[in-house]
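thread: overnight batch results

M.L. [08:02]
morning all. the overnight job finished for the chain we discussed friday. pasting input first so we're all looking at the same thing
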Amino acid sequence: MMDTVLPLVDISNPTAETGQKLYEAASTLGFVFIEGSEFSSDEVNKMFGLSAEFFSQPYDNKQNYAISEANRGYSCMNREVLDTTEKRGDPKEAFNFGQFKDDKAVQPLPQAFSTFEQDIADFSKKCHATCHKLLDLLAGALQIDSEQGGAKWFSSRHDMQQASGSILRFLYYPAVSNGGEENEIRAGAHTDYGSMTLLFQREGEEGLEVLSPITNEWIAIPALQAKDTKSCPPIVVNIADQLSFWSAGVLKSALHRVKFPQKQVSNGADRYSMAYFCHPSDNTLLEPVPSRVIQSLEGEGANAVAKNGQVLTAGEHLARRLAAAYSWKQ
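M.L. [08:03]
and the structure it wrote out:
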């Protein structure tokens, strides 16, 4: 097994034991590596290639597809403020793909992406299917009553045919200029907004750090090697806010950030990553999960999304988080 600060769980042949391993990681740090996914190295590398081609274009070309209030499109340097206690935006660029309908994007795409629209749609669908697999494993470990939906309780609320906040995001962090500062934060400390996130990284382009709820110290997360030439490297999975709220805080949505390590600052290397932010359908109520495990624990946070005695929907929760991260007035 690879040496890593996070647990590494193989999901190729999922069992109840697999679900228990995921639950243990999700209920402690909230982060885990998975291997045994159905992603090949070729398809992941192809997405990274498309990302690099797009971000290399002139600013004006990219800005033609500027991010909208629907959270789709291009986000330029310093546009997004993930740590809302900071006034300065994050020094990174991003492009968000919303849902695909009949393998067609529901947003305008630049030529760098439209030419490969089917490939991107397939990749996004595979991301969502992987999240379904993980959600089913967690639901099984949480012992959700079969009469209430059992192992499908979460995944049935993540229907790709319904509107949701699910986003495939390409990310680009330019190298630190003029030697830069090691302590410069490239993506501010934040928790993710949805149910869970898949993060694809490349070796030599590290930067992800997670705040340990045990030691209250930042933990650097490495980018691991693939187990063979055909498989993609292990994927980082983290629990996000809505799954934490749903589980009354039993599953942890941990603070994390991106900060270039000294080696990368010295090398002047860029960082590319890809994230799939999996969200429930917009009209899903973030109500307590009928789980025997959760009911036996003294979790807190189930009412954190309630407002004036009413439980928020997934769409309402996302709208509030986006409003804090962006100012839509240019």
